[in-house]
Every structure is written in structure tokens, then in C-alpha cells.
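User: Okay, second chain of the day. Same drill as before: sequence in, C-alpha cells out.
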Amino acid sequence: MARIKAGEVTLGARQWGSGPIPVLFIHGNLASKDWIEVAAQWFPPDMSVHAVDWRGCGDSDRPTPDDNYDNYSITQHAEDMLAAMDTLGIGCCHLVTHSTGGIIAARMQLIAPERIGRILHLDPVSPMGIRFEESSIAAFRAMEQSKQTTRAVMANAASSLFQTDSFLPGKMPKFRDGIDHLQAMFEKVIDQTFTAGHGIWLGTPLNLTKEAESGELAEQMDRLVHETLILWGQQDTIIQQKDMRAMAEALPNARLVEVPGVGHSMNIEAPQMFAGFVAGFLSGIRPLPPELPEQAAAGEPEDAAAEAMAAAAQEPPDRSPRLLWWLNRSM
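Assistant: Same drill. C-alpha cells below.
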């Protein structure tokens, strides 16, 4: 796998496709760039999809965490992703996020709104963060020490792959019949999860709790003006429905789709469906940032790059061939 420089760290990276529409996938906690591997075979040909591991995950460096885990903060991950975009030569792109990747994207929106087009969130941690009690932190400590515990807990992140009654107390999650290819993918990502750095196991829940307690990011949701699609699986036991509805209501330009039959990770549970949402929302759409309030007041783009992107936008996108391609590929 490729490794790219992003500021002070080197991060793992993958790319699918080489089309003219750049997309950056930001994975969730205890995950990796490979969480869209199965879905990628159905991505449209007009997209180039880049996936980058967080620091501490996948094929990335694992810096020693500082005393407060500040070098694993949500803002630090956002800055890493923007630095990775620099290395990859991406000026502006669409974002696709999963889980904690959602709140990382929110920080990116505040830091560099001009570098982001549309955003597709899959079961995201909202800008409100998540408050983890000490008992939950203890669960992360236990997972870090036991692969069996990690597997049992992570099964909740892809619940539709497992027999419902196998989640009962005293049982180990058991796969449904007939999903060998998805089972293999799940086992692969569990192997990766267990190799995550210490800064991820404890740093992520502690920093998500800081975001929830400060409320600073949540108070700025009206500034997150990018066109946004939020997908939430109705079987998700990790992200609450009320948080998704509150997020969709607070963001200026967002809509929420509640998807039956899947849990927290449609990208693994129903990868073809996930690819369909990505295609429908992003294919044929050039990544242009929204008009920001200060730009509207000035009446013109801030720089030559923005003017060039605005000129490119005058060319109407030809979406129908891409969607027909995806429909034919799916049959």
C-alpha cells in the first residue's frame, strides 16, 4: 500500500479509479482506508476516490500520544487529512465519511471550507460529539487487550451481517449464512483494528468527549454550509437517530436518509447500496465549494483558483451516462 507524507506523519493511502472528480474517504474510529474496498468495485468511472488512514490506524505512523492525547484530537486528524490532500495534489474534492470521520470532516469545513465540495456522511458522529463515561473508556481498554473482545464489540458496527439472537448476553456474534465475501472483509478489518495505536484506542473516545463537553463545534453548525447527504442505517446501535435528525436540522444545506435493513456500516454490510448512494450524489458533479458569506459580500471569488473552478462549473455535467453505467454494473 502507498504511504504519503502529511505534515509530521506518514499516512497509509489507497486510490480507486482515475476519473476527473476527486473524492476523499475519511474512515471511522478503529478502522482504515480499506473499509470501502468492497464497495469500490461499483464506484463510477468518472471518480478518483482516495482513502487515507488516520494517524494511528491502518498503514499510518503511530506517534506516541502526549499526556492529554491532543496529538490525536479531532482537529489534528482534520489537519492530517488536509495535509494529505496537499501531498496528493488535490485542491478541492468531495468528502465521503463514515462514523467518526464525520466530525473530522466538520473540523475540515471550518479550517478550509474552500477545499470541499459536497459531503456524504455515513452514520456520522455529529459535530455535537459523543460523551463517553468511564465505563465506556474501560471497554476500549479491554478491547485493546483482547482480540476476541474487539471482534465481539465491533460486530455491533456491522450488525446486519450477524444472526440477531447471537447478540444475546453470553453469546458470541455469529454470521448469517451466505455472506462469505462480506464475512472475509469483516475479519480483515478486525485484524487491522487490533493493530491500532494506543493513541487511537483511548485518544478517540477521550477527544470525542471533549468535543461533546465543550459544545464549541456544535455551536458552529450554521457555518457548515456545504451540500450534505446524511445516511443513517435504521439498525445502527452506535449512532442515535435523534442525533442524526438534529444534525440534519441544524446544518444549512443537508438532508437525511434513514435506510432500513442495515446498521452502522453500510459500506461493509451492503457495499453495492453504499456505492449507489455515492454515485447518485457525487458522480458527474464537479467539486466546487459553496459561496461563503464573505465571498457573497465581496461579490467575487477570493482568488484565481476559485475563478477557475467557477468557470469550470459553467459546463453542465453529463450525469445520465454515469448513472446508466452504475445501473448496468449492478444488474
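Residues 296-302, 304-331 have pLDDT under 50 and may be disordered.

User: Thanks, on to the next one.
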